[in-house]
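Task card 7
Instruction: Convert sequence to structure tokens.
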Amino acid sequence: MPDSPRDMRSTAPSAKDTFALVTGASGGIGACFARALAARGQNLVLVARSKDKLEVLRTELAAKHSIRIEVIEQDLSLEGAARKLSATLTERGFVVDLLVNNAGFGAHGQFWKLALERQAEMLRLNIATLTELTHLLLPALVERRAGGVINISSTASFQPVPYSSVYAATKAYVSSFSMGLAEEVREYGVKVLAVCPGGTATNFFEAGQFGKMEFPGGLQSPEAVVEASLRAYDHGHSMVITRFFNRLMVFAQRLVSRRFAAVQAGKLFRPKTLNSGK
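Output:
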């Protein structure tokens, strides 16, 4: 006879033997996820391009928490990155109970003037690696009927964003994919959450060369984003828009045409060099 649900639970690894995998963990929201999960007693696998920053974070967390913390230095924007990472996890015997797909980046400027290869890297990291890594790790979660996936999307996923057209499109994919997948796996006891922050106080804008931008309501702290995310995950939600002001703005977009929303977003994201005629 096939194993009963009771049998499946009895052979599943215990919490002390499983890991949360956090991509893009060297700073910002990813590092805050690592700190918050460590405080919950969760073992961690931290992935990013900068091993030095990961080691600093590991030292910080190890001094405060009695958990296992492993680091993997890898560029997830490269072709085949998800399969390489999955193979490393298998080789090192890491059982992932929670996948936090946080790694991602944006680019600011006129689409045809931005480097094509940079935008291709964005598509691979924000969409392909996220999707492939989820596909590779999800079957084990479904089999154990436990665990889940947290995908970091954005409020940019709710409307076109001129001068960040590709970035907004990638996040529209992340939100739609996550919410659809959440309903597929719900009956198996697996959670999937799309997290949609607005402007957040990280190095995102500097790395994407957005320049100084003024966001209505100001920037949210990454700690607040993570707190809202884990609360929504605990309650089994499929999407969370962090902060009341951001939820209000997303709701307001439903009352206007998509073109109007795009025009307004274009005013906010239009490079200042275009305004000055340079």
